[in-house]
Specification:
Mean pLDDT of chain A: 94
Distance between the termini of chain A: 34 Å
Order of helices and strands of chain A: HEEEHEEEEEEE
Oligomer: homodimer
Strand content of chain A: 35-45%
CATH topology of chain A: OB fold (Dihydrolipoamide Acetyltransferase, E2P)
CATH superfamily of chain A: Nucleic acid-binding proteins
Radius of gyration of chain A: 16 Å
Structural class of chain A: mainly beta
Shape of chain A: globular
CATH architecture of chain A: Beta Barrel
Helix content of chain A: under 10%
Chain lengths: 118, 118
């Protein structure tokens, strides 16, 4: 039985979702951000450009786990200052909200760098 | 040199992106939609619910390629009638816009069904 207090979920037009650009990027380099507990600074190659991305998954992953991987990034968000570093895209991951466990979404080796995700 | 006509890319707040719910779903069943060229009807299990999803990748993938896979779906879009079937979520894939080639984004076996992608 559904709780009477459950809020109806708002539904959106797909066109609204599509205004966000997600792309496959290759993590060229990854280093821990000094004096932080879980920040990792990534250098991500999108083929036509390279960006700095700060990801907050350093409590569960080491920089070496990320380096060389092709993953998904949202690339048209406002840049964010995180621990004094400008993060120029957002890493997309899967997360179990019950346990807090983060799972990397890595794309196959054969997927070209920079391709669109939608 | 950048073309003078290039449009500045609009940037969005991450909070706006987060209103879209993406979840890992397990494709329990997949069948071609009769009398269509590229539609595949999926039955997707999200743990707490099951949904029908119509995906337009049947020109590049067979139903058997999808069945049993864990993939990413956007689950709070308005349902869409596609070839007379109500699609209740959208499959997220990678696509090379130059070649039109579609790449599946499959999650690791150990990723629990239904977890959030963000």
């Amino acid at each position: 039985m559904r709780l009477m207090t459950e809020k109806a979920q708002e539904l959106y037009d797909v066109e609204e979702f599509w205004k966000f650009k997600m792309r496959v990027g290759l993590v060229k380099d990854a280093v821990r951000v000094p004096r932080t507990k879980k920040l990792i600074k990534l250098i991500v190659n999108f083929g036509d450009e390279e960006r700095v991305v700060v990801a907050g998954i350093g409590d569960q992953y080491a920089p070496e786990d990320l380096k060389g991987k092709k993953m998904i990034f949202v690339t048209n968000l406002k840049p964010k200052q995180i621990a004094g570093i400008e993060s120029q895209a957002m890493l997309v991951v899967a997360e179990d909200e019950t346990t807090g466990k983060v799972y990397l979404i890595t794309l196959d080796e054969k997927v070209p760098i920079g391709v669109k995700v939608w």
